[in-house]
Amino acid sequence: MAVKVLVLGARGGIAQHVTRFLKGNKGVELTLFSRNTSVLKDEAPGAAVIEGDVLRNTDLDTAIKGQYIVYANLAGQIDKMAAAIVKSMEAAGVKRLIFITSLGIYKEIPGKFGQWNEIRIRSLPIATKKALRN
Predict the structure, then answer these.
(1) I need a labelling partner for 129 at 20 to 30 A (CA). Which of 38, 54, 58, 82 fits?
(2) 57, 85: one domain
(3) What is the pLDDT of residue 124?
(4) 72 phi, psi to nearest 5 deg
(5) Same domain, 43 and 79
(6) Euclidean distance between CA atoms 15 and 127, whole angstroms
(7) pTM above 0.90, yes or no
(8) Are residue 58 and residue 9 in the same domain, yes or no?
(9) Residue 24: is it exposed, middle or buried by C-beta count within 10 angstroms (0-12/13-18/19+)?
């Protein structure tokens, strides 16, 4: 049985890499979700394609229902999007979420949170090296 994977924000740069990786895997049933789906059908033939907005509950609920993993690659109102995704996943009984964001990579976050975020971003290469050694 194939693992059902939903890619939210499927036109995003990182999401396109994920899609290319997953589309060749026979053990994956791929669903691509984006506000603009015009090019997605060509990107991953055989994938289900859903046009919608993560902040529209009916769109999100339709996309998440029956999935095994939700991969979110989004920008914008991340806090509202994350809350909507988790709410929809809980209602559908979906337990696995991979959430990718580039928040703060351009030092655009002000205040103490921005400072904390910059420290975390700088520590990523160190954490990655440690993880690879284990």
Answers:
(1) 82
(2) yes
(3) 62
(4) -115, 125
(5) yes
(6) 23
(7) no
(8) yes
(9) exposed
